[in-house]
Amino acid sequence: MKTYFKYWGKAAKDKAGEKMRYHLLAYHSLDVAAVAVEFLKVSPLLKYYCDTLAIKEDRFLDIIGFLCVIHDIGKFAEGFQNLRPDLYKFFNNKKSSASYPEKHWSLGYRFLCENTQMMSDAQKISFLDALDRWLAASAGHHGRPPKNEMNAFPVNRRFSPDGMKDALEFMKDVKCLFGQCDFDFFIEKDENILRTLSWNLAGLIVLADWIGSNEAWFSYHQDIIPLGDYWQKYALPSARKAVRESRISPLPVARYKTTKHLFPVITIPTSLQSKVEEIKIPDGPKLFIIEDLTGSGKTETALALAHRIMTSGDADGIYFGLPTMATANAMYDRVEAVYKEFYASDTDPSLILAHSMSRQYLALEKDSDEQDYANDEECAGQDLKGWLFDNRKKAFLANVGVGTVDQALLGVLPVRHQALRLLGLYRKVLIVDEVHAYDSYTNKLLCNLLEFHAARGGHAILLSATLPHALREDFIKAFVNGMQYDFSGNVRDEYPLLTMVSGDIFLEMPVSSPEHLHKKVTVPAVHDIKEILTLIESALQKGKCVCWIRNTVQDATEAWALISEKLEEDKLTLFHARFALGDRLSIERSVVNNFGSKSSAQDRRGKLVVATQVAEQSLDLDFDFMVSDLAPIDLIIQRAGRLCRHRRDASGNRAEHEQRPLPEMAVFMPEVIENAKRDWYSALFPRAAKVYEHHGRLWLTAKWLTERKAFRMPDDARTMIEYVYGDESQAKIPDALQLQENRAGGNDRAQAGVAQYNGLKVRNGYMADMLSWPDDENAPTRIGEPATTVRLALWKDGELAPYFNNDWFLSQLTVYRSLIAAEDGQDQKAIAAVKVNMPDKGKYCVVVPLRETEGGFEGLARDGQSHKVKVYYDRARGLRVERQGDSDEFDL
Q1: H-run or E-run covering 400
Q2: I need a surface site. Which of 127, 601, 705, 739 has the fewest CB within 10 A?
Q3: pTM of the model
Q4: Cβ distance 326 to 376 under 8 Å?
Q5: DSSP string of 81-106, one letter each residue
Q6: pLDDT at 817
């Protein structure tokens, strides 16, 4: 008997009175290899690798199989085996005192680097120069690349002499099992290509390890049989079943369908949609940028274009990234109505919603019975359970995913399992909406993602109503850099515009917006909040539906409080992000029902929404009159897109022709004066001054709007944007505002620099450096004040229960950490008791117990400075926090 059969790889939790259950390390290693091999056989990834490397498929499958088999080679170390002393004694007939100071994946990587002769006849240095990223991908199967640190404890001191001998013999026998496993072939390959390919390999091995660790497919095997027999009789058949049932393989794509076929409601395609159907789509990675008015059908155009790319054989799925949770929820509903049209009629494609508060469960959810071997030891069975419950990761393996752009950006940040996200994005059309809506940090990460996607053969579609020239160029340069081209074109001024980039192909195609969106929006400037209230009251009395968009939650809440004294409860809605998820979804549905495309005159008449930025992006809302706090010019245009969005008659019902008066949007702003003082904006908007730091650009926005008193769409769109964002705009800003503008510009550059530092580099390959690889909950996809996930709890019969519908997920929301950072402490025992029963054990969340009062609910928490704060919550206003100073002496 080969002595490498006396090592366990998986072990069930030790239960009193039950026989020890374990899975031999040799067999688990083969399980993982089998999953990778069977997945590749049904995935276009195999052809991509083989074409790129000029290697035959059978030979490449043997190489990948071998790399997967050795992923857990570090588990031959005595310290790991002694994590289950009972099993160590059972196999070795003795006890061990070995500790476990170094994790098996890190130790395994160092072991492989020290023993390259088992894989190649080439010199060690030459081999590692070519394939160190591939070894890191193999050993880094728990989501982080291992570090080969200098002056680390010698590898041979971490293994017993028998352990070292058995690990080497196992590698030798496995190499014989995979007969064409010849790594010398890679020594002559371009290192940049090998490094770029390492990202998908890392994701593949993580996925294979998770699936290969699922006992539902791979039962524990303790009887010893030869490796080849186990491979043929158990590993491969089980892997075929697992790949099929886990639904991770691509599906056949439907034959090409026109925009009208995909969206029957479109009787006459727009100019943009017709152009997308007509253009010749080149081979290779492609970037499209669609700039058109809000409500012009950009979403349908992007989906139709993605369908064309899929039917050409260049992609198998879609990921649609949105700026916010609310916009992702709305887009999910729109995509759900059409996504099955992209695939063959006899298939069942998957669609998953992915953002920080999404929850969908797959049928294969199953609690892992695998032993958690040590407090800080990560096991694939527990990772698998986390993956099954975490749509933020699953969405990228679904056929179609919809979510926030943040989830895609995590693929280019040093976070656990980022390579799995990249693997999921491979062969998907990446669609990103509202690309004008992000800050400098996020835009830089988006550029990095575009570079990664292009370097790995991907395709992207960017959507925006308004995009400054400089930002459009940044996106184009990033994408073509991923293809290893240089961009030397000059972007055009026409609007609307469809841009296509692929290698050295650069085309800009002017299109026309739908005629009913050509409109003049009058923009009266209002400087007093009393006048705002008068305008709103007048519009409501005329039966109009109205929206007031404020720039902060507190401003919106205060405005709601002013108006609530004069308006019936069913006529007024406060809509912002600081509601428990259950309440927020209910409010969101109500807003869409009352003011969306299908709303009737009765639904809309005399109703008011006071909202924050959640109402300005991607939600299909249609108001008769609007008020907006002064915001950057692109957001003013965006908000105006919610005015008279759909054709209606004078009473508010849908009609063939627009019969309402010209749309009007009052802008609440300071008076525009040439010698504006430094506090020109902050005096009127002290809170929003921290949200929109470019006060000079805000002054330019106000000046343009005040001088013209109206704008026409689409005629003025490009002019408005370049007036504020153009290269010559800075000189127009008053001297007193220049200091803040320069400070904001410095912050932008600093944010971009941080993103540049944080972001991974595609041609560095999958390898750890000085950066840490934290859990993605702590990874910054956006720069801003740190936030806390808060779960609201109610006292019921002396115990805590979820606030909303007995559901912790629907009872949570996110607030700034400066407001709530920790639990108060007086109810810690009850909080600990409920966290144990949460699906995620309450990790990374703060539970706030609430007691019901006459006006809602009240509770206690601690802010970012550990001061006690009072927390108020009610279904109409959401969550509010009252600071109590330094005193801790007060009761509920």
Answers
A1: strand 400-404
A2: 739
A3: 0.89
A4: no
A5: HTTSHHHHHHHHSS-------S-HHH
A6: 92
